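Entry:
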Amino acid sequence: MDDMFGKVSEILAKQLRLQPENIKMESLIKKDLGADSLDILQLLMKIEDKYGIMIPDEELATFETVADVVSYLEKAGAKLD
C-alpha cells in the first residue's frame, strides 16, 4: 500500500488482529476496532518507530478515528517507506 491510510490500517490490522479491509477512515479506534488504551499506546509506539516521529500525549488524547491518526501523520510530515 502506498498511502498513509494504507500504512496505518496495515499497522492497526496487525496490532488488533483484524482484516485490513474492515478498517475504514471513519472507524472509531476504540469502539469500532475494539482497541483498548494499551493497544493504542503500542500502536503509536510502532508508528513513532516506523516514521521517526514523536507524538505528544496531548495529541494522542485527540485520536478517536483512523482518520485522526492519518491526518496527524500527514501534517507531521511522516514519510512513507
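The radius of gyration is 11 Å.
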